[in-house]
Task: inverse folding
């Protein structure tokens, strides 16, 4: 029997799906499994699902306990990695101060860690992706909201409680829109997929004809960031403007981050990063106008290389390094 503990089990606990993988030290993914989170059913049911998903992945990959160094779960939201507690998660209704690390450790008798998903993505990109061999890096996950992860001197920076990197909730408009976090004018309300959707839905209501609405088959609620991106590709003027505006605010936030961290690289991942240069080129222009010139000349703002695997690989790195 192989008892070298050369694999870790990692989970990405999303609002819709739980993704599980068994990963080796060099980042090779040896097995994958996916099942629904059933988030609406509350913490107890979700946790049962997590345990079952881990057991299923272990048995499908024909692993033995002796092969597995431990488990790391990556979760969106306020995740206290020090005490192993999920304080809250935007994707998981009813989760308040859930001692997830202890529950999983007791259920599976394997060492367990938990980590914010955006921090996990930063670790993954740093070890295996666009941030390899780079000492100081910021990773931005831009999707429905905005998450962040910080690498300082080759190490993940999590702050006193594991919360560091919540860039999405820094104000870019002092008295702007009210955010669910309690703050006003948060970055993610102006520079995320939700911002694009909100603006598009507002604008199409006053337009006689709109590519955006046509692409959403006439259903305003069906408009997504992708719909707007496709309409922008077709040169729909409103769609182009919405993307430009989003990129502008994205750049405003990046300028602050560059002044604070002076990173060698900012890696941009998450669903909206698929906009590519449509998002990054105008954002770099805003950075050039606003941030200090030396860090602006130094920093490279690039897209994620690992895409959907960044968080899983980062969770593996976190477990191997723990
Ligand atoms: Zn906020």
Result:
């Amino acid at each position: 029997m192989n008892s070298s503990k050369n694999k870790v089990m990692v989970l990405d606990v999303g609002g819709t799906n739980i993704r599980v993988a068994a990963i080796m030290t060099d980042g090779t993914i040896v097995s994958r499994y996916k099942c629904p989170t059933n988030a609406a059913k509350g913490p107890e049911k979700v946790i049962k699902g997590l345990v079952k998903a881990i057991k299923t992945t272990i048995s499908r990959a024909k692993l033995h306990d002796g092969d597995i160094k431990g488990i790391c779960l990556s979760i969106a939201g306020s995740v206290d990695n020090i005490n192993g507690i999920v304080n809250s998660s935007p994707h998981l209704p009813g989760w308040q101060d859930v001692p997830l690390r202890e529950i999983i450790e007791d259920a599976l008798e394997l060492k367990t860690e938990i980590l914010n998903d955006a921090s996990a993505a930063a670790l993954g990109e740093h070890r295996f992706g666009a941030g390899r061999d780079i000492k100081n890096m910021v990773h931005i996950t831009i999707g429905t909201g905005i998450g962040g992860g910080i690498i300082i001197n080759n190490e993940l920076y999590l702050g006193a409680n594991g919360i560091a990197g919540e860039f999405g909730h820094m104000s870019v408009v002092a008295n702007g829109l009210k955010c669910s976090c309690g703050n006003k004018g948060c970055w993610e309300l102006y520079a995320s997929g939700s911002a694009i959707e909100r603006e598009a839905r507002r604008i199409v209501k006053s337009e006689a004809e709109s590519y955006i609405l046509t692409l959403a088959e006439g259903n305003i609620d069906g408009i997504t960031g992708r719909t707007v991106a496709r309409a922008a590709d077709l040169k729909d003027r409103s769609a182009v403007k919405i993307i430009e505006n989003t990129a502008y605010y994205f750049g405003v936030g990046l300028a602050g981050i560059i002044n604070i961290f002076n990173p060698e690289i900012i890696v941009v991942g998450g669903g909206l990063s698929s906009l590519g240069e449509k998002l990054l080129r105008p954002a770099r222009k805003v950075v050039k106008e606003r941030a200090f010139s030396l860090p602006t000349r130094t920093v490279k703002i690039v897209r994620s290389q690992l895409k959907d695997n960044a968080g899983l690989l980062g969770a593996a790195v976190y477990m191997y390094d723990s």
Notes: The chain has a mean pLDDT of 95. Residues 169, 179, 181, 183, 186 surround zinc ion (CB under 6 Å). The longest strand covers residues 17-24.
